[in-house]
Design a protein that fits this description.
Order of helices and strands: HHHHHHHHHHH
CATH architecture: Up-down Bundle
Strand content: under 5%
Number of strands: 0
Distance between the termini: 37 Å
Number of helices: 11
Largest sheet: none
CATH topology: Ferritin
Oligomer: single chain
Number of domains: 1
CATH class: Mainly Alpha
Radius of gyration: 18 Å
CATH superfamily: Ferritin, core subunit, four-helix bundle
Shape: globular
Length: 252
């Protein structure tokens, strides 16, 4: 694998993570429990769309085949997506969405904080902008976990159930392969072991403050980096890609 191919893979993964999670969060538009949260989650989705556009546009440029960010978003099949599985899971109730946001935003905060020092100037620039956004996403999710965990018996039980259910998908966030090894050697990517240590410390602190139990590290679900997904991604793509596939030459 060449360095260019590794950068393409790396940006594609990060773009896919942002794109698919933004789709899930956008489903809360007009459905959130309170108006302020409706606006907050929708704005988080817009942040992620912007990040996906930047990452996929750069991936297309590195690939050198003339594919745009729209082409990569709307004209790939399910097995050609490489997002982490946690991003594509159904929203469930509000507690489950908040638990996922805490896990993913914390991961992204520490990841993009380190990526600001990437030897690739484009990745470093995208990371610098992203950190400002995900810092707020992480704080927002953390505040809600505290409110739910240390709230009523019902809210406590719901957020604990969500944490327990999603925990098996968190291990995949820190998996590494040849792409990571090549780019880490060039100081383009970051050491995910260091990101995991910071993530674990932060998540553990939030859960304990919220009077919640930290799940055991047992079985971890994986597959996203190899293009093996849950059934849910196919349903997302059937909706998200419909217009582009039905009218491929349409001009807006």
């Amino acid at each position: 694998m060449t360095e260019e191919q590794a950068i393409y893979n790396y940006c594609l993964r990060m773009g896919d993570n942002s794109l698919i999670q933004s789709y899930r969060l956008s489903e809360w538009c007009s459905n959130a429990p309170i108006l302020e949260e409706d606006l907050a989650l929708t704005n988080f989705a817009l942040d992620m769309i912007g990040r996906a556009q930047a990452m996929l546009a750069y991936a297309g440029k590195i690939e050198g085949k003339g594919r745009t960010d729209d082409d990569l978003a709307y004209r790939r099949s399910e097995r050609q997506y490489y997002n982490h599985l946690i991003m594509e899971l159904p929203n469930g109730d509000f507690a489950k969405t908040i638990a996922r946001l805490l896990f993913t935003a914390t991961y992204e905060f520490y990841l993009f904080t380190d990526l600001q020092r990437s030897a690739d100037p484009t990745i470093a620039a995208i990371a610098a902008k992203t950190v400002k956004e995900v810092k707020y996403h992480m704080a927002h999710a953390g505040d809600w976990v505290l409110r739910l965990g240390d709230g009523t018996e019902e809210s406590h039980n719901r957020i604990q159930k969500a944490i327990n259910k999603l925990w098996m998908y968190t291990g995949e966030l820190f998996e590494t392969d040849e792409t990571d090894a090549i780019l880490a050697d060039k100081n383009i990517a970051v050491d995910l072991a260091l990101v995991k240590a910071k993530w674990t410390a932060h998540i553990t602190g939030v859960l304990k403050e919220a009077t919640l139990s930290v799940p055991e590290d047992e079985y971890m679900q994986t597959g996203g980096r190899k293009g093996v997904h849950t059934e849910h991604l196919g349903h997302i793509l059937s909706e998200m890609q419909y217009l582009q596939r039905a009218y491929p030459e349409a001009i807006w």
